[in-house]
Amino acid sequence: xxxxxxxxxxxxxxxxxxxxxxxxxxxxxxxxxxxxxxxxxxxxxxxxxxxxxxxxxxxxxxxxxxxxxxxxxxxxxxxxxxxxxxxxxxxxxxxxxxxxxxxxxxxxxxxxxxxxxxxxxxxxxxxxxxxxxxxxxxxxxxxxxxxxxxxxxxxxxxxxxxxxxxxxxxxxxxxxxxxxxxxxxxxxxxxxxxxxxxxxxxxxxxxxxxxxxxxxxxxxxxxxxxxxxxxxxxxxxxxxxxxxxxxxxxxxxxxxxxxxxxxxxxxxxxxxxxxxxxxxxxxxxxxxxxxxxxxxxxxxxxx
Length: 303
Ligand SMILES: Nc1ncnc2c1ncn2[C@@H]1O[C@H](COP(=O)(O)OP(=O)(O)OP(=O)(O)O)[C@@H](O)[C@H]1O
Description:
By secondary structure, the protein is an alpha/beta fold. The chain has 2 domains: 2-215, P-loop containing nucleotide triphosphate hydrolases (Rossmann fold, 3-Layer(aba) Sandwich), CATH 3.40.50; 224-284, 2-Layer Sandwich (Alpha-Beta Plaits), CATH 3.30.70. Helices cover 37% and strands 28% of the residues. The chain contains 11 helices and 14 strands. The chain has helices at 40-48, 69-74, 91-99, 106-119, 135-147, 165-180, 192-195, 216-222, 235-242, 264-271, 286-302, and strands at residues 2-11, 14-24, 28-33, 55-60, 63-64, 76-79, 153-157, 184-189, 201-206, 209-215, 228-232, 247-251, 254-258, 276-281. A hairpin with a 2-residue loop joins strand 12 (247-251) and strand 13. Helix 3 (91-99) packs across helix 4 (106-119) and helix 4 (106-119) packs across helix 5. The two termini are 36 Å apart. Adenosine-5'-triphosphate binds at residues 11, 14, 16, 34, 36-42, 81, 158, 190.
């Protein structure tokens, strides 16, 4: 189990994490979703023990990553967004070297490396230098390394980014397998629909704060069809009009009215004086639910 407790992280004067707390239970996949720069990687690096929090802590199966780092980090595997390995070393040799950190002897590591590199689809590449690997192959290699200590908890940071469809399916299938084995998995993405078929719950982060924790089934229920989108010149006045028709918010320079009630042609006439450019029903998808949460959080922030 991964327990993230009130994490704060400062980079100079910039507060990148502002009290991040949530749990990932055993046998659960938690999607960790936020826009670029939201704080996902910072949270994950702290949880992996490769970065320190300014305050707060992460417990991995009860071990504190700040006070009992050795035990905690042994129990967590981490697949980074952009794995960075020594380019001139062959995959299997590198695996043996890295497995040394887990206290695995070199003969044992060699056998384990062969098995794990095969499992992640790199059997043909064991004696090839990592510098020759594509980004997707580096992620598979990072996965093999993270499996070396057979940890019960995993952190996947934007692993699907830049992968081909076969690579994406490989990682998704693996995550489901790990979940069924009872492991705790935190899986970050900036695209909610990417985690749709694997996550049990989704933790939304925005500007260093958790802005919502939702069960996947509840998120699906939120995807309704009664959404209207309008583009106007004068947003402030148009917003007041839109309030009569539902719950409006400005998202990406558009007025998005959720829970829309009424007649769209009447609204269209009412918005004309405010420079109406475009209006129509929005095909609602999971991503609009994500943007809705962001816009609600921005609104409450400005209050
Ligand atoms: N080493 C650092 N020094 C200064 N600022 C940093 C550093 N690392 C991250 N930040 C800042 O902290 C914020 C959160 O960054 P982080 O990488 O955690 O976001 P993210 O959600 O993972 O985004 P992305 O999807 O782009 O990776 C950003 O504003 C980023 O610029």
